[in-house]
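thread: overnight batch results

M.L. [08:02]
morning all. the overnight job finished for the chain we discussed friday. pasting input first so we're all looking at the same thing
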Amino acid sequence: MSKASVYFSMGGLPDRHDMQAIKRELDALPGVQSVSVSQTGRIAVDYDTTGTDAARIAGQLQKAGYAARPCPGGKEAGAR
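M.L. [08:03]
and the structure it wrote out:
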């Protein structure tokens, strides 16, 4: 089992309903271990690479109707 993390930034600020919906959508993907959605529109996902990958996670967000883009360099936006 190999673990990885991917970070996304949303185009706007999510409300509580959006935060819960995003978490629910991504938690349903095989291999996703944890999902964190901040009030600033940042999404962090820890996953098992044998079950899913960053492209599939991004696709699930898009399929659910959320315009989230990967953060450059695989790091959370604003992280140093």
